[in-house]
Specification:
alpha+beta; globular
Length: 120
């Protein structure tokens, strides 16, 4: 059986770019910069041995509804996918706060864009 060579585009987001439980402890130990927006806190860890990766923490106590929690995760991962080149050798940990539970999709996206303006 022949397998087709399916190459992913450069701006795709694979599982290698998403932090697992072990990656969070490494990221928390190397935090060098923090950026706070209305809905999220961004913890940035840099290092020459790190690859571009993102981890999103949306607690049930902060954001009660699963639909809203998943929206927060999806939007932050999409931002990371679109701007992956800016996060070379960087681990990005995103923590949602209680304001994210009442926010609309547009408000969350504005908050994410506010982070990008502060980060660049």
């Amino acid at each position: 059986m022949l397998r087709a060579d399916i190459s992913l585009p450069l701006n795709s987001l694979t599982k290698d770019h998403i932090l697992e439980a072990k990656g969070f402890s490494l990221g928390f130990s190397r935090i060098c910069h923090k950026v706070h927006t209305k809905h999220f806190s961004y913890l940035i860890a840099k290092g020459s041995d790190l690859k571009a990766s993102i981890g999103v923490i949306v607690g049930k106590k902060k954001v009660k509804k699963a639909v809203q929690r998943n929206l927060c995760r999806r939007l932050n991962k999409e931002m990371f996918r679109q701007h992956k080149d800016k996060f070379a050798q960087t681990m990005l940990i995103v923590i949602a706060n209680h304001n994210a539970s009442k926010a609309t999709k547009e408000e969350l996206w504005q908050s994410i864009n506010g982070f990008l303006k502060q980060y660049v």
